[in-house]
Amino acid sequence: MKINRLSKALGAEVLDCDVTSISQDMIDEINQAFLVHQLLVFRDQKITPEAQVTFSERFGPIESRPNRPFTLDGMPEVTILSNRQKRGRPVGIISAGDFWHTDLSFSTTPSRVTFLYALEAADEGGNTEWSNIYLAYENLSKDLKQKISGLRGIHVFDRRRNSRVRVDNQFKKAQSRVYGLPIPDAVHPLVRTHPDTGRKSLYICPRFVVGIDGMKENDAQPLLDLLFEHQIKPEFRYLHQWRRGDFLMWDNPSLIHIGRGHIKPPGIRHMHRTMVLGDRPF
C-alpha cells in the first residue's frame, strides 16, 4: 500500500489497496493516514454496496435516516448520487453537495466520515472540492479567535429557512416532503475540537448554519459572512477530478466540501454514498 500526498492543503492518494480484502493492520495504517491527510482517495476499486457498507462500518456506526430519497432498494444506508435519467426521471440525487457544507452538521451527532464510490465519472465536470477548516481556524487573527471563542452556531436542515441557499430544482415540487421533516435544529461550537487529533477547526458552513446562538441577527450575519469567506481561501482547498473506480473517505469534523456540478452532456456521474456517525461536537 502506497500513500501519496495530493495537495499542500489536504488529501492523499492510496495505491495498491483493495478495500474489499483488507487486514486490521491495514485498517490501522489507513486510519493513521486519515488523521493526517483528512481525505483519502483509493484508486481503481471494485466495490459492491454490501462491501462498501462493511468497510464503512469499520470506522463507526453506519448512518441511515428514514425516508431519505434515492437509497438503494433494501439498503437504506446507501444513497445514490447521479445525474442519470430513467424513463425521464432521475435515479439519484442530482445536486448533492451544491453548497459548501460538512455532512449532517444539522444533527446532534453529525457524520464523522463520509464514503463516496464512483461507479461512473463524467469526462468533464462533476468535480468535488474540499476546504481544510483546521487551516481556516489556525489562520484566523488572534482577535477573531477570541471573538468567536465560546460562540455556538445554529445548524438547520430545512433549506427554506436559509437565505444563503436555494431549494434545488429536483425537489421543488416535493420540498415540503423533503425539507419539512421533523428534524430539530442543532447548536454546535463555532470552534470544534477534533475527538482524535485534538486540533481545532472552524466548524460552520453556509449550507446549514443560519445564525449564532444568543447573538442578534444584525451582529451574527456579518460575522458569519466573514467567516464563510475566510473558510474557502484557495490555499485551504483541494479539487478532486473523479475517475471511475475512485473510492473516497473524508473527515467531516475538519473539512467542508462542495459539488461543483457542470457535467458536460452526455457525461454521467453515478455514485454510492455511505456515512458513519461521530461524536457530539465540543
Explain the overall architecture:
This protein has 282 residues and is an alpha+beta fold. The protein has a single domain, classed as 4-Layer Sandwich (Double-stranded beta-helix). The protein has helices at residues 24-37, 49-57, 133-138, 142-148, 175-179, 217-231; strands at residues 2-5, 12-15, 39-42, 71-72, 75-82, 85-86, 89-90, 111-120, 127-132, 152-155, 186-189, 191-193, 200-202, 209-212, 237-240, 247-251, 255-261, 270-277. The strands form five sheets. Strands 1-2-3-16-8-18-5-4 form an eight-stranded mixed beta sheet, covered by helices on one side. The radius of gyration is 18 Å and the shape is globular. The two termini are 34 Å apart.
Quick rundown:
With 282 residues, the chain is an alpha+beta fold. It is 20% helix and 30% strand. The chain has six helices and 18 strands.
